[in-house]
């Protein structure tokens, strides 16, 4: 038996590439985006009452990771990328139906649009449903997860003088907390866990419409080298 679903909207996100997106929501509070709803879900009465809610669950599609053949076992980055476990024990993007979920902060509501923060969603992500976060039911104080019990360890993020000035200039232009966004994302060390990068190797990603470049002068330290406007 099969079912069909259709998006209720699409996310306009600060994350233009998959690389460096936090692996869970809420790890980068400065990560912002807008969920733009499509008809008929963009009508005001569809959102009535949501102004009383601080956080929402988004059910969405990993639209750039959909696969014809399901994976039964995956290699979670949290386990170093070299240990396989069952797909249902993880939140890996390689899902049987490509469905993900994230709890995000609802900053404000406009007609047909939800402004969100703390997101971990790629630009253009199709959203299938919105559900309000219910603290008494959703926050389970005695819950445990032996595979991912604690938040990931953070690494130090440093700036060159020029890259910091560039980030501050671009942040003023965008009206976004770009410096905080870069620091929050990079502190989680986006490189594959099995890599030991040489100091001369550069990494990069695109946030909003800027390109961010960095390297690892030491294995546990990042230095941001450049923050420049992306080519159109």
Which strand-content bin applies to the residues?
Answer: 25-35%
Structural class of the secondary structure composition?
mainly beta
Mean pLDDT: 94
**Name of the CATH superfamily of the largest domain:** YaeB-like
Along the chain, the helix and strand elements come as EEEEEEEEHEHHEEE
Mind describing the biggest β-sheet?
A: 6 strands, antiparallel, barrel
**Percent of residues in helices:** 10-25%
Distance between the termini: 45 Å
The fold-level CATH name of the largest domain is: Elongation Factor Tu (Ef-tu), domain 3
Pick out the low-confidence regions: none
Number of helices: 3
InterPro entries: TrmO-like_N, TrmO_C, UPF0066_cons_site, YaeB-like, YaeB-like_sf, YaeB_N_sf
Protein name: tRNA-Thr(GGU) m(6)t(6)A37 methyltransferase TsaA
Keywords: Methyltransferase, S-adenosyl-L-methionine, Transferase
GO molecular function, one term: methyltransferase activity
């Amino acid at each position: 038996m099969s079912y069909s679903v259709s998006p209720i909207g699409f996310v306009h996100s600060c994350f233009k590439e998959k690389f460096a997106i936090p692996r869970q929501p809420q790890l980068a509070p400065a990560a912002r985006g807008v969920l733009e709803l499509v008809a008929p879900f963009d009508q005001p009465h569809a959102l009535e009452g949501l102004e009383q809610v601080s956080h929402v669950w988004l059910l969405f599609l990993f639209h750039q990771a959909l696969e014809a053949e399901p994976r039964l076992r995956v290699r979670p980055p949290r386990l170093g990328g070299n240990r396989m476990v069952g797909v249902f024990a993880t939140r890996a993007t390689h899902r049987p139906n490509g469905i993900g979920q994230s709890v995000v902060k609802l900053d404000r509501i406009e007609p047909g649009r939800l402004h969100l923060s703390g997101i971990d969603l790629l630009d253009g992500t199709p959203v299938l449903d919105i559900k309000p976060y219910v603290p008494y039911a959703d926050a389970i104080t005695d819950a445990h997860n032996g595979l991912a019990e604690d938040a990931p360890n953070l690494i130090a993020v440093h700036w060159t003088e020029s890259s910091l000035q560039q980030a501050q200039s671009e942040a003023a232009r965008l009206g976004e907390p770009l410096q905080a966004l870069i620091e929050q994302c990079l502190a989680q060390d986006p490189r594959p866990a099995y890599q030991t990068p040489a100091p001369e190797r550069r990494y990069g990603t695109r946030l909003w419409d800027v390109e961010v470049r960095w390297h690892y002068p030491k294995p546990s330290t990042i230095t941001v080298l450049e923050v420049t406007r992306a080519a159109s």
